[in-house]
Amino acid sequence: xxxxxxxxxxxxxxxxxxxxxxxxxxxxxxxxxxxxxxxxxxxxxxxxxxxxxxxxxxxxxxxxxxxxxxxxxxxxxxxxxxxxxxxxxxxxxxxxxxxxxxxxxxxxxxxxxxxxxxxxxxxxxxxxxxxxxxxxxxxxxxxxxxxxxxxxxxxxxxxxxxxxxxxxxxxxxxxxxxxxxxxxxxxxxxxxxxxxxxxxxxxxxxxxxxxxxxxxxxxxxxxxxxxxxxxxxxxxxxxxxxxxxxxxxxxxxxxxxxxxxxxxxxxxxxxxxxxxxxxxxxxxxxxxxxxxxxxxxxxxxxxxxxxxxxxxxxxxxxxxxxxxxxxxxxxxxxxxxxxxxxxxxxxxxxxxxxxxxxxxxxxxxxxxxxxxxxxxxxxxxxxxxxxxxxxxxxxxxxxxxxxxxxxxxxxxxxxxxxxxxxxx
Length: 424
What we know:
34 strands, 2 helices, disordered C terminus, 17-stranded parallel β-sheet
């Protein structure tokens, strides 16, 4: 293990007592060195993992505390896939600390525990964490947020950006890729979530447990693409998931079937959801959900309102859907293109080519929506924006962005983004 200490400039004697501690750059090239470096890390340290394959049987703990503006960084050198953490146990990364960046790591489950294993667990004490440009493969739950029993403490200000998550085999049970419970200001942007369908009920991305002020945007969610899905139900993006037990809901938010509001004011915008054997978009007793400028293709159901104990409108605006929308008292719609002919609107949706088709001009002239200032690929929206996730005339190569080679930049407008965690 190589440690390079940063060099502080010469300071006047009067200011020496106020200078920050030196940060370190640590180069780790064995599993033991990775564990040791994380155990000793302090604010501002950068742990660079050399390219190679690393075997782990026990969880890798990120329990220290960085500082706002000085996160502890765990970075895999090279491109995604050059640094592979093979997980032989029930958990890969266990994050209970504050102010971390995890970047460029491929977490890959192997062995007999994958059908119950988790790639990354974010515990209730986690704050201001960025997971970006990583890959997770063959886990039951790829990234899991946890609510603390009793206190109901849950992660806050978590950014999950530019990652790829998928399974190469079909499990007998369920698989929930991004399973995010509780907390505030989850930021899920620019991820490729695919091939997660198994025999049970399977979710691509979902928030529940009274999550609040969260945004799911510019993700590609494909229930199946590189392999056939299992026999179970495959759901795309959900506010509410399968709901929580009432013991995980705060007083005043306990309903008959879980939390009255499983999510508050969640926004799903500029996403592409394809090939789901069940519903692409889903609400299960969430309050104030917004589905804005999404594309849904080849889904059994466009939007399902499974249960609704809460209050407030469910806004569905400016989406392009190859089916219809449900009649529900709380659903408010505008400028949606339903029962769309994708063969006419886009060049080749089956091949993830959403460039302009012969009738793409009919997508134009929807009403601009607050916060929807760019499209799936980051192109600026016009004053009369196109419906769906792609602004026309499209210069957005969806398939060409896969597999991910870097981290996408999020829309410039977001609710309370953590100032110290960049995703550009």
